[in-house]
Amino acid sequence: MIISVARSVLIASLALTATLLVVGRSPAVDLVGYVPYYRLSSNYLNNILPDQLSILDEVRYFGLSVNSSDGISSLSGSINSQKNNIATIKGIIDSLPVDERPRLNITLGGAAVDSVFSTIAASSSLRTALAQNIDALLGETGATSVDIDWEHPDAGIERTTNYPALLKRIKQEVGASNRVYATVAPSVVISNSVLAGPDAIDGISLMTYDLGWWGNDPSNPNDGEHSLHEYVEDAIKAWTDPISANSQRPWVWTNSSWGNDVPADKLGVGLPFYGRDIFGSDAYTYAELASSGTPLGNGYYSFSGQTVWIPDQATIEDRIQLAHDEGLQAIFIWEIGQDLDSDNANSMLRIAENKRASLITVVPGDFNGDGTVDGDDLSQWEEDFGINADSDADDDGDSDGNDFLIWQQNVNLPGGLAAASTAVPEPASVLLLCVGFLSFSARSHILRF
Q1: What tens digit of pLDDT does each residue of 259-313 get?
Q2: pTM over 0.85
Q3: Distance between alpha carbon 267 and the CA centroid of its chain, in Å?
Q4: How far apart are CA 400 and CA 440, in angstroms?
Q5: What DSSP string runs through 39-51?
Q6: Domains of the chain and any CATH numbers
């Protein structure tokens, strides 16, 4: 009984203080994959998508857009058919183990609705109507984030004022528990005001998979190679450099020097799973090229008598490494339906996950694997204590008092708790010792009885 009471008091008290300062690994780069409506065959849904979802941190469903009347419309078929698709994906997510479930995002937009976005963003009442419709859609589908895919807002007041107002109004409506993202071409500048204040959006996705590649100009060997590493490096630099810095984007026709001063951890960069032949008009998927193409090196393939460039294993590993080194928020992929099965060693999604895993250094005591050592890990240890080895920080095969002390040393709680003796008492002693400490600390600093 004493141990049970002590454990309960410990959990309640430490959960309050552990949030003050946390220590952990550098946050892992999120893997975000797009799933468009036209990929949802029965075979894909049943045999391929579940394994892909278990790798992703977020899946973005693409099938809905916006209009100037009721706010949300379908890109194909009825809205109900699109909602049914979303429900199917949500069902697959819910069938996965809890620690393998990605966030569910709904992407709204596409290049064809530029003028509609312009109309909505320019009107306070239409911004509010769209924000309310998005909030209702998230509630109905169980999705927890929305991606506003307005790729090319016009320069001037549309970018400086209207678009930021639209994004922040949506965030205000959906609330802190849901996420709002913007997806734009890297040559577009959105005011960094969207990332400040109580209604700050959660991230900006840069379309680094779409950098002038439609030109396919024989005089420019980079056209057709639409996601080269130097393009991505330049895009990151242009968006994160201070506004006064000499930051140029070489694929923009002007030679103006400007930056956007956006925090790196708010940015995602793209990685395409499709390729386009260098001097022609045909596009091919990675799965086609990897299965039937002839590798020529450096991402080039010979396929159907044409030379095609697509990110290869070295490119995707470099992209993950760059995102890690720069502290970016995410790598997002258009689109995961063009990849090989994720159990294939040549699957680019699997390659990305393996590379990401190699870069993560976990701090002992992060029992729930969320990148920080905090009160949530203490709760996890409490659930696992004496039952399993899920909170086993010392690799001795169980969850016990030693693991608690390792958590304690890494959480750096105030008041000197992290400076505990290296001697390891029995679990009951650990608990009672901490209860005594916390009782004193509570009387002095936190709780008043």
Answers
A1: 568 899 999 999 888 776 766 667 888 999 988 999 998 888 999 888 888 888 8
A2: no
A3: 9
A4: 24
A5: G--HHIIIIIHHH
A6: 2-21+363-446 (no CATH), 30-273+311-359 (3.20.20.80)
